[in-house]
Specification:
This protein is an alpha/beta fold. Helix content is 49%, strand content 15%.
């Protein structure tokens, strides 16, 4: 079975999508439609901006979404997903790819999510860090220890065995990184992100995002969409909506998602979007898995 997967924030790079815009009339039409919807030329930032411009949450999220979705749609007849999944922000791309959201509604939701998250980040300075080569249980144990001391610190992304991203207050993450290294982590690397995504510190953004999702029509998808919060396939629009809201403050269960997709028959994973991060993670989750970008 063919599975299509979509990356999240962090995969962006200056110049992303320019080749699509220049060489595909469909891509150009969709990018220009996006410029109109957003009321600013996001293509100028994607194609010719600075890394700093592109790293703003309110720009990054719609930019990665656009590159991912337009890449998929420009595949033509080769784009026939039998299941989809997206990492964090990528879940919205996966829903468009599966026909649960229109391109326009997907972009509007992603922008609403990005703006709400940007406000939450500005209200509470916070951060994330990647923990390498420490068992999941140990990472969660240390996070709980730091939380017990009054700081916010949670396991945010279960990316693959031996790679977890933690999220929380700056003091909490700094403290946790020291404890992770002392416990034997190969690396505890602070990330250049705008805030503590997938943590309780995103709670202020929840009401705003929930209102936007509730006001958006989500259709029954053409194929199952595996969602981050429970790593399970979903086709019921009401469940999809509920999980999209919960995703904001919940962990991304990517390792379990890929394992479940393989158990359910996925034999070929295509990553649509900038970079090749998900391909690498998939091969670490299952070394026999076939994972590649768009040919």
């Amino acid at each position: 079975m063919k599975a299509f997967v979509f990356p999240g924030q962090g995969a962006q790079f200056v110049g992303m999508g320019k080749d699509l815009y220049d060489n595909s009339p469909l891509a150009k039409e969709l990018f220009e439609k996006a410029n109109d919807i957003l009321s600013y030329r996001i293509t100028d930032i994607m194609f010719n901006g600075t890394d700093e411009d592109l790293r703003q949450t309110k720009v990054t999220q719609p930019a990665v979404f656009l590159h991912s979705v337009i890449s998929a749609l420009c595949m033509g007849n080769e784009f026939k997903p039998e299941m989809t999944a997206g990492h964090s922000l990528g879940e919205f791309s996966a829903l468009v790819a599966a026909g649960a959201l229109t391109f326009e509604d997907g972009l509007k939701l992603v922008y609403a999510r990005a703006m709400a998250m940007q406000k939450a980040c500005e209200a509470h300075p916070s951060t994330m860090a990647a923990i390498i080569a420490l068992p999941d249980e140990k990472v969660e144990e240390i996070c709980a220890q730091v939380q017990a001391e009054g700081e916010v610190c949670v396991a945010a992304n279960f990316n693959c065995p031996g790679q977890i991203v933690i999220s929380g207050s700056i003091e909490g993450i700094n403290k946790a990184c020291e404890l992770m290294k002392a416990a034997g982590a190969k690396r505890a690397l602070p990330l250049k992100v705008g805030g503590a995504f997938h943590s309780p510190l995103m709670e202020p953004a929840r009401a705003e995002l929930a209102a936007a999702i509730e006001a958006t029509e989500i259709h029954t998808p053409n194929c199952p969409v595996y969602q981050n919060v429970d790593a399970l396939p979903h086709t019921d629009p009401a469940e999809i909506k509920k999980n999209l809201v919960a995703q904001l403050t919940a962990s991304v269960r990517w390792t379990q998602t890929i394992k479940n997709m393989i158990a359910d028959g996925a034999t070929d994973f295509t990553e649509c979007g900038p970079g090749a991060v998900l391909q690498g993670l998939i091969k670490k989750i299952d070394k026999e898995a076939i994972a590649h970008g768009i040919a």
